[in-house]
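= Paired protein data =
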Amino acid sequence: MAQEKKYKLGELEFETEQEYREAAADLKRIKGLVDKYNVEDSQQAKKILASIKAHPETFRSPYGRKFVAKLEKAANGTAAPMSGINTEKTEKKERRKKEKPAKIKRSGSDGEGKGKFQIFTPLNFAIGVVIIACVIVFSIFAPRLFSLNSSGDSNGDIRRNMVSAYAKSQAELKAQLYTYYFSVVGQTEEEAQKDAQEGMSYYVLDLSDRTVSTMTDSEISDIYKQLVEGGDIQNSSFVEPSEITVLKDKLLAAGLSGNTGNGVEGETAVEAAINSIMDYQYRIYTSLCSQYELLGNSKENAQAFADEDLSAMFGEVIFDYKMTIEDKQSYFDSFVKRGLIKDNQIVRFSSDPTAYNLPELTPAIEVSFMGEEAVAYRSSMTSYAPAASVFYEIRSGKKKGYLCFRNNGGNTDYIPLDDDTSVTAQGDFFMTVGSETRSGKWFYNKQNIGILINGDQSSYISYVHDLTY
C-alpha cells in the first residue's frame, strides 16, 4: 500500500499540494521583497504594507501572514523616535529666535556711555549713497530675474516628464502582460488581468491606469519623491526592478515585446495562424538546440533531441516547410483538431513546467549522486516552452552547470521504492557541471526527485527553501 502523500515546507506540513504551492509562492514573493527593500525600516515597511493592502491576494499562506505581521511591527515600532527628532529640531530653532533679540539689546546698552550717536557724518552719507544705488539697480533687474525663474519650473517639467514616461511604459507593459497570459499561457480574461496586475506590483507605484496630464504639480512632486525613495529613480534615471526585467524577457521570448500579436496586413486568418505556428515552432526549436548543446551534446544530437521534443508537442513540425494556401488550410484544420488553434489564434504551451508534471526547481536545490555528499546549487529555469523538456542553469560558487528533464512519460522502467511502493520513471535526466556529465532516469521519490543511474536509485535532487527573512 502506498503511503498517503504529505507536503512539507520548513516546519509546516500541508494536506494538499495546493496549500504547499501557495506557501512556496509566498516564500518567493517574500525573498523578492527582502532583496529589494529593508523590511526593518519603518517607512519602507509602511510602503510594502500599502502595496499588500492594495493587492489582498498577495499572500495566501501562514508564511505570508507571518511576514505581514513582521512588517506591521516594523512600521509601528519606529514612528515615535522620528516625531521626537522633529520636535527637538523645532525647539532648537525657537531657542535661536529668542537668543537673537537679547544680543541686540546688550550691544545697544553697551554703547550708551560712549557719547551721542551722530547720523550726518561723511561716512554715513557715503554708505547711504551706495544703498540707494543698490536699490535702484535691484528695482531694474530683479523683475527680469524673477520673471525668468517663474516662467516655468524646469525641475518641475523634468519631474512631470519622467513620471509621464514611467506611467506610459507601465501601461504598455501591462497590455503586453495581459496578452501573454491570455494568448500564450491560455488563461481566462480574469486570470490574465489578475496576473498582469500582479506583475505591476513589482514597481514602487503602479501608474498604468492613471492620467498624469491631469495631475497637479504637487501630486507629481509627491509621486516623484516616492519613486526616488523607493529606488525606481536614481540619479535622474529609471532603475528597472529585477522582477520586471524577468517578465520582459518572457515577453521577448514569446515574441510579444513591441508586438500586437496580429497578423500581417492582407493575410487571411488561416495564413496568420499557420505563419504564427511556424514562427512559434522555429523559436522553440532554436531554443531547444541551444540548451541541448549547453549540456555537451553535438550539434547533430541537439537537433535530433529538439526534433523529438517538437514532434511530441505539436504532432507535426512545419516551421521549415514552403506551403501553398491549400497546404496551410490543411495544417490549419489539423492543428484545430489538436486544440493548438482556437478562434483563429494559436494556443501556446504553458510556461509552467508543473503543468506537464515536470519539476520546478527554484530557487535552490541540493544534489547527491550515488551516496556522495550533497552539493547545494542556486537554480533558475532557462526553458522557453517546457512542454516536452525543462532546463535549469545551476550555480555553486564559481561552478556553473545545467540540468535537463525530458521525454516526459516516455519511459517504462519499473522502480521499487520500498516493499509497498513503486513508481515508473518519468523521463530522461541530464546534468553537466564543468567537464562532469551525469545521465539517467528521473522519478518522483516522496518529497525529492530520484535519479536512477545504472540500476542505482540512491541519487536524488532535494528542494531547498530559504526560510530566513
Remarks:
- Residues 78-94, 99-117, 142-152, 259-265 have pLDDT under 50 and may be disordered.
- Residues 155-257 form one domain.
